[in-house]
Amino acid sequence: MKFFIDTANLEQIREAQDLGVLDGVTTNPSLMAKEGITGRDNILKHYVDICNIVDGDVSAEVIATDFEGMVREGEQLAELHEQIVVKVPMIKEGVKAIKYFTDNGIRTNCTLVFSAGQALLAAKAGATYVSPFIGRLDDISTDGLNLIAEIRLIYDNYGFETQILAASVRHTMHVLECAKIGSDVMTGPLSSIEGLLKHPLTDIGLAKFLEDYKKGN
Ligand code: G3P
User: Fold this and answer.
1) N or C: which end of the chain has fewer CB within 10 A?
2) Ligand 1 contact via 185 beta carbon (within 6 Å)
3) Residue 217 pLDDT > 90
4) Ligand 1 centroid to 209 CA: how many Å?
5) Residue 29: CB within 6 Å of ligand 1?
């Protein structure tokens, strides 16, 4: 299972990278705005900065919602760095753009996916990743994890190679449940990764080992 961090914050990206378990980064326009990164040039530079910190894939989202605009932006993003994956929204023009990018050797992440039908379309268009937003489904009393299970079943039925990228992950239980279901990737905040570290018995056990060591030395 790949671990991506869902942020545009360079410090947090560095921290996750230093832990040694990071496989990539996802961003979106809201995450960029949260870090105060505005203006096309600054945004493009920020993507390159992120690519220079991590080894894996970095999702960079198009803003256009028409086919020509998405293609223009996506090609520009893909040329920035070999690690860039073009993030395209699940709309009609987006499906066409994903198919175009697939045919032209540009990797894609189909974002804003909230149903199995949308995920099936993304796979048919050849998306590299599909991003079901599980936290946002949970927010409206719909089981986000169930969507991951449905997509897993459908993709396995037909051998689709599109990787399921569980997005809008909010906490460690999302990560664990996604791992059990067989999601290929999860993207979440740093806390959802670091939270996996924690167990009180680890802390108690380590304190006791150190105490006993000191007694004998
Ligand atoms: O990867 C998608 C993500 O950025 C959305 O997360 O927490 O805003 O629902 P959230």
Assistant:
1) C
2) no
3) no
4) 41
5) no
